[in-house]
Design brief:
Strand content: 35-45%
CATH superfamily: START domain
Number of helices: 3
Strand order of the largest sheet: 1-7-6-5-4-3-2
CATH architecture: 2-Layer Sandwich
CATH topology: Alpha-D-Glucose-1,6-Bisphosphate, Chain A, domain 4
Helix content: 10-25%
Shape: globular
Radius of gyration: 18 Å
Amino acid sequence: MKILKREFKRRIDVHASVVWWNYWDIEHFTTVHKAYTNVKMLFENENMYIVALTWRLPIFSFFKSSGICTTIKTGKYKLEDYQSTFFNIAVKTEIEIEEIGEMSSLIISRYQFFLHGWRRILAPFMYKMMAVWNQKVWDEDLPLKIRRQRVKEFGFKDFKGLPDKLEDRESIKKWEQSLPVPRPKNSPINEYL
């Protein structure tokens, strides 16, 4: 077996709780990320979620794959994600979000691909694909994180919106994100719950 590892670090000027929200907001997968074509929640609580996913490869987008993804909260702003990808390749992803300042964060993404048997020949391709995938997801999520930061600074609350009066629109004092991230009861990703 060959274990292929790669790490990416990215800095963003948003609060760590905004980045954290992005990793736990499952509804955005199919609307923001072009690679994901179907997501269904199988289980979730305040520490983990399990979803059935269908996605396209970032380089060969005509090729679809499906699998189960289990994401576990391992600390404040830390998670581990386990899934089986195309050709039944097991993948472990660790995400760590560090608070650099009050409104700035460092995101550390660590990928491990476990390549068994003939899949070892895919190592050079997988190494390059990790960079393409990480960049693509970063580019797609960036506007979402920035927008969320801006509306939260004006007092936005999920399912309530902004305060009606302009004078009531002030920055939130407590930057926290409770889990699981709320979503409408009729959300299509709830179909299996």
